[in-house]
Automatic annotation (TrEMBL):
Top-level taxon: Eukaryota
NCBIfam families linked to this entry: unchar_dom_1 (TIGR00369)
Lineage of the species this protein comes from: Eukaryota, Metazoa, Ecdysozoa, Arthropoda, Chelicerata
InterPro entries noted in UniProt: ACOT13 (IPR039298), HotDog_dom_sf (IPR029069), PAAI_dom (IPR003736), Thioestr_dom (IPR006683)
Keyword Hydrolase: yes
Record protein name field: Thioesterase domain-containing protein
Boundaries of every Thioesterase domain copy: 51-122
Pfam families per the UniProt record, alphabetical: 4HBT
A single MF term (Gene Ontology): fatty acyl-CoA hydrolase activity
Family: Belongs to the thioesterase PaaI family.
Keywords, sorted A to Z: Hydrolase
SUPFAM superfamilies, alphabetized: Thioesterase/thiol ester dehydrase-isomerase
Natural source organism: Ornithodoros erraticus
Amino acid sequence: MIELTRYFMTNVLHKVPYLQPFIHKVRIASVEKNKVTYELEIEKDHCNLRGTMHGGMASTLLDSLTACTALSATGSKDKRVLSVEMKTRFISPVKMGETVLLETRVLRTGKTLLFAEMDIVEKVSKRYCLPKWILWRKYRKSYWCKAIILCMFMRRETENRPAQVKGNKQMKMDDYMAAACEK
């Protein structure tokens, strides 16, 4: 999986115009099956006017890095994913100069949908920078359902049009999201 992760970082993410100012600063810290941890030192360009990591920056990293991990987990360079739904909440700011671990995981892969999540954790203190409701869930279910991204597989032969999902798509997505959070 490490080879595919490096491939997607170098050949896909590094070529996306809006990621170019910072994506080269993201390092791969560790790779396991269906899990990749990235590392990034927060610099002035990543911050809002208060000197903390901008929420848009965190959301961009969530979208891009979970996609990279999802693509790597498929085991193929020919797959594509498209973000369908993203939920993010923040509980603790990350200050300029701090280093964060961006822990991405693929939760479930179906025929047309894939579920992934990312934790943003301050490296030294291990402080989570995500929702309060997730902290409550930890003690209740001993599972951290953090920022979750729902991706839809793309088929290359259909010129990057999303694969069709039969039935009530929104209901199915909500059910999948709820099930992913409950496990």
